[in-house]
Amino acid sequence: MVKKIVSLFIVMLIGLHSFAQIRGTNIVVMVQPDHTDWNYEAGQTAVFKVSVLKSSTLLSDVKIDYEAGPVEFPTVKKEGVTLKDGTMTWKGSMAVPGFYRLKIIAHVGNKTYEGLCTAGFSPQKVQPAAQCPKDFDAFWKKALEEARKNGLNPTRRLLPERCTQDMNVYEISYVNDQPNSRIYGILSIPTHSGKYPALLRVPGAGVRPYQGDTYTAPGKAIVLEIGIHGIPVTMDQKVYDDLLNGALRSYSYTNLEDPDQNYYKRVVVGAVRGVDYISSLPEWDGKIIGVTGASQGGFLSLAVAALDKRITFLAAVHDAMCDYESELKGVAGGWPHYFLYDKDPTQQKINAVRYYDGDNFARRCHVPAWFSFGYNDETVPPTSSYGVYNIYPGPKTLSVYQQTGHYWYQEQWDEWQAWLFSKLLSTVE
User: Fold this and answer.
1) Is 177 one of the catalytic residues?
2) DSSP letters of 214-252?
3) Kind and range of the H or E element at 362?
4) Whole-model pTM above 0.90?
5) Using one digit for the tens of pLDDT, what is the confidence trace for 206-219?
6) Known catalytic residue at 344
7) What is the DSSP letter of 413?
8) Residues 303-357 pLDDT 10s
9) Which of 51, 252, 295, 385 is catalytic?
10) Residue 294 and residue 137: Cα distance in Å, rounded?
11) Residue 176 contacts by C-beta under 8 Å, 6 or more apart in sequence?
């Protein structure tokens, strides 16, 4: 009898977990352009249709606030507008290449709901404002030469609970730019002996643990996923939360006026040293190493590909840290938006961050590249992402998912993975 009661209780818990899930909201703010690709020629007019929906039907007498204009620099802001039938039409235009955004905030009860749409105007003609220091190449050549005076002195620890039938998984570390500075990561290696292509995964911004990659090309490729902060990547989440709110808070703004002390110097060097580490593995095929990442990882993908000619392909998703200087000209620039709020930066600061602008790395890349981003991204604006793509000199593929923000859809993820797999598989017998 007791066993029956326990079994019934377990079934009830499973049922609650299966059916009592929170998904989405009943109120939806939809903003639609009148061009299906969201693109217009400079000088044309985009027409946006706004619909505030409840249970997929229009909500009457709803109050909204809205702003409209070039991304990051809206020219119109209105509050407390009532939509009697739940709809509104808005027209916007740009005379020069760029992106125009209409953002709606609806007030329903005591809650707010947002919707936005971003139209591209001649996006294929967007050009970044980033300027390159004359000694850019010498700066990074010296940084890598200094770091490589130190041996990698690698460590490796098996993580049996993460291993699969196809892949063995390890936490690894190697020396970065100084003997006492290390990079930690998760290494996945096919279980069967042989020679394999490799992929370096570089991270987005933040402080977190990593699980490793056993899914991109199971049993067919080596994958190294690294952290950037010089700390083990298998600790409890609370450790990373404490660091993000303490010692590593605002790390992306550290020492901006001194390129030699900029936080990202050791990050970029450490990522390139990841290629050194992969190339030292006896399982590597000696031919293919790709690099990929999103946001901050998009920037690092460009940096690694520019600084290490062993890289054979890259994939960058909503690449951050590109074209900071456009914001000094009233045009949206990339995260972390050094000049969006600092309206009067010193020339020293402007000069210094140029060593860390993804555009200056992108101009030095010539390997096949896959780019993807969304027009509705409020963290990394499409202006900076499209600018990077436009100046990229190597073979390139662009896959835009207009409605996405600073995330990706399942279809986008699947396409990203398929592209990586195809590049790795091209050398797999």
Assistant:
1) no
2) SSSSTTT-EEEEE-SSSS-SSS-HHHHHHHHTTTTTTGG
3) helix 358-362
4) yes
5) 999 999 999 999 99
6) no
7) H
8) 999 999 999 999 999 999 999 999 999 999 999 999 998 989 999 999 999 999 9
9) 295
10) 24
11) 147, 182, 183, 230, 266, 269, 270, 273
